[in-house]
Design a protein that fits this description.
mainly alpha; two-stranded antiparallel ribbon; 2 strands
């Protein structure tokens, strides 16, 4: 009796798949559906006629699409895909924070119902659901906390979704002009740290569609350490490589050079202008040069610079970059830059002004920022 609760639903639908075997091959049964199982159909009350057996899957698909639950399920499916959140379920009596949950559910239900209406009117074009969800507050809205006491409601507004390792891999390259990988594997996607199962792909919530089929969407301690390692390592060689290029070709430092210290108003202004540029380039934020965000980043740059100068004077720090951070070979021709007479100008190896390492601190700060690691619209 306990089994029939599910089998009354599953067995008729299984019968609608009678023309395919367990490997998905088209293999119609010559004797028809199994006599000892419930007859094919969408339910016991909606049975399939024997004349529909040759087109059983089309018959079932038509029944599913015309079921009123199909439109809501479709909206929920794309809502999860776009926001990374599960749609709210109707709260039951006795639920903790019942009033708050009911308010959030009612709002979500109202928005979903309008999207469903447009979906049906379009002839069930899935693009309509995607477009309407992106236009909705669930994707594009920004959380307003002033005067709002219902945290369950505000949690549904705006996007806050951990970027998958595959997307983060591409985002790092688009921002830094360099993949997070060992240098000689730059062109081998499968060897990128976030694309390789032997490295960080599955540890950072990725899947292999075999033994691991469900992504981890909630940050854990291992993933947080991977984020920090990425931020530190990507502020090493890629930062030096950017300084190796002409200013017009740089992705990160178009307004400064590798010897521009925070001494003098003109230099400070240029450094802050470059920080403004980095906020837009890395975090997608438009900030004012006099904003507190820029001042915090500048303070980090300046304090790192000061500590570096003091450390070099005390012989605690070297005037050279770590070997893994230095550019000693031309990245295109692989020419050994030590062979050139203009060594100081061609190499990004010496950092006697402690400027390159100060910028590395700023880049680490930004690459580890929530707004870089999450797809979000929250404030």
């Amino acid at each position: 009796a306990d089994c029939t609760v599910c089998h009354f639903v599953m067995d008729p639908i299984a019968g609608a798949m009678q023309n395919w075997d367990d490997r998905g091959r088209y293999r119609p049964r010559s004797t028809g559906w199994y006599e000892n199982m419930l007859p094919p159909g969408f339910s016991l009350s909606e049975r399939m006629g024997s004349s529909d057996y040759p087109n059983s899957m089309q018959w079932l698909a038509n029944k599913i699409v015309n079921d009123p639950r199909f439109t809501r399920a479709s909206v929920k499916l794309f809502y999860k895909a776009l926001t990374g959140k599960d749609a709210l379920s109707k709260p039951k009596y006795g639920t903790t924070y019942l009033a708050e949950t009911q308010q959030a559910y009612d709002f979500q239900d109202k928005v979903f119902s309008e999207i469903e209406r447009k979906f049906v009117s379009s002839g069930m074009n899935a693009k309509v659901i995607i477009k309407e969800l992106i236009k909705s507050v669930f994707f594009s809205g920004k959380v307003a906390t002033n005067g709002v006491t219902n945290d369950i409601f505000t949690d549904t507004i705006g996007l806050s979704k951990l970027i998958s390792p595959e997307i983060l891999d591409k985002k790092i390259y688009n921002v830094m002009g360099y993949y997070w990988a060992q240098g000689y594997y730059q062109n081998n996607t499968s060897r990128h740290y976030l694309m390789n199962e032997g490295e960080y792909k599955t540890l950072y919530g990725g899947i292999n569609s075999n033994s691991i089929t469900k992504r981890v969407s909630e940050l854990n301690g291992v993933m947080a350490n991977i984020q920090m390692r990425m931020a530190v390592e990507m502020s090493c060689y890629p930062v030096s490589l950017d300084f190796y290029k002409q200013s017009s070709d740089r992705k990160l430092f178009p307004f400064v050079d590798k010897k521009m210290t925070p001494i003098g108003d003109a230099n400070v202004t240029m450094i802050k202008n470059n920080i403004v540029y980095l906020y837009q380039h890395i975090l997608g934020e438009k900030v004012n040069v006099n904003s507190s965000d820029v001042q915090r980043a500048y303070n980090l740059f300046y304090e790192t610079y000061q500590a570096g100068i003091i450390g070099m004077e005390a012989d605690d720090f070297s005037n050279r970059l770590n070997g893994g951070c230095a550019v000693t070979r031309d990245p295109v021709t692989n020419q050994n830059l030590w062979d050139r007479d203009r060594r100081e100008n061609d190499l990004v190896y010496y950092d006697g002004a402690y400027v390159i390492r100060s910028w590395a601190a700023v880049i680490t700060y930004m690459l580890s920022d929530f707004k870089f690691l999450y797809q979000n619209t929250a404030e």
